[in-house]
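Quick sanity check, Mechanosensitive ion channel family protein:
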Amino acid sequence: MAGSITVVALVVLAHPQKIPAQEPIDEIPQSSLTAEIQASPQNELFFADVLVRGQSVLEVGSLASLSADDRAQIINRRIASVLAQADSPEAVTVQFDPQREIAVLKVNNRILMTVTNQDALDFNVPIETLAEQWANRLNQAFTERPLAVDVLQRLTNTTRQLLRDTINLLPSLLGALVIILLTWIVAKGVRHAGLVWAEKTEGDRSAEILIGRLCYGGVWIIGAVIALTILGLDFATLLGTLGLTSVAIGFSLKDILSNYISGVILLAARPFRIQDQIVVGDYEGTVVQIQLRATTMRTYDGRLVYIPNQVVFQSSIINNTASPMRRSDVMVGVDYDSDLNEVKTLIEEALSSIEGIQLEPAPMVLVHELAASTINLKVRFWVDSRQQSFLQVTSTVTQAVKEKLASAQIEMPTEIYTIMLREPADSLSPLDLTPTE
């Protein structure tokens, strides 16, 4: 078929009526050949496929009073009726009516379709030749073929239909691609603008990430809606479908959606920020990244932990670095005979020489408890809240206090246990250490 030639074929599909074999072609009633040509075309589809067992056999075109799609549906219904009555129908025959300049394709004495003069003009072949070609194609399709041939034919038809649809949708596809490209450019620009604005107003990296991602995602949603509209998607139908399937989607994506919603709340509420040192459940470490789905934490021994935001949101969070300073305590036990005022003075002198202890609030030395063998004093001081500084200064204070008290000969006894014997020692019988056999 030439690229510029429009193919049109007429399908006649009234209720099948048997015609006697001896009936001459010129006696076929005009109404039985044209009864189906009563509707007006409803669209601009010029060609439609005639199907046999789901496979495209030939194409028929529209007529002045019948669209190609309606014509093909009539033919397909008649073919399906014939195949339903007999898996192997008789051969398709051609009867030509020179008075009306039409050819009739019949099988089992039933009219399948007519070939008009318009069809011949469209294909640029005589009516008799075109009718014979279509009859041969139908006869080949009616004959059962090997599985491999059938599969190959289906693949060919599917590929051809896909190619045809792609060509028809090419303008829409190009328009959608342009919209997607513009959306990508605009989304990057809006995200950058949002980040710049957040840096000037918020000063928090977590909030900057949230604002940038919301801006980026919002632009992409708008761009996707516009692109799908260009492709012809009916959003009223889509929203209706989503409404019907929202319950199933909600159950299947419950955990994922919960993580994302929890991530948005965490980024908005900001109970912690990137580089904060927090405790979440059994995990303690430094926050490395806050994403919409999970929070990444690096523990103090160098391991990365990915905690779903739903778990973080539902857990108690201890933020060790929420304030710049953190109090540390060291317990010191001295002998009951020690002068507590002297001990306090010595400890305060030891603390004054240690770098890293905050002067405000000032360190404190408190008598904590009277234990069994020692008087326990609690040394309190404030240091930088970062974990490394906290541990280093606490260790230095413990060592300095111990050395200071030891140099002043202040005893720091260990636990002492006194064993009281209620019977005199003389009354105790010696132990029998004689080995037994």
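Posting the structure with no commentary besides this: Residues 1-43 have pLDDT under 50 and may be disordered.
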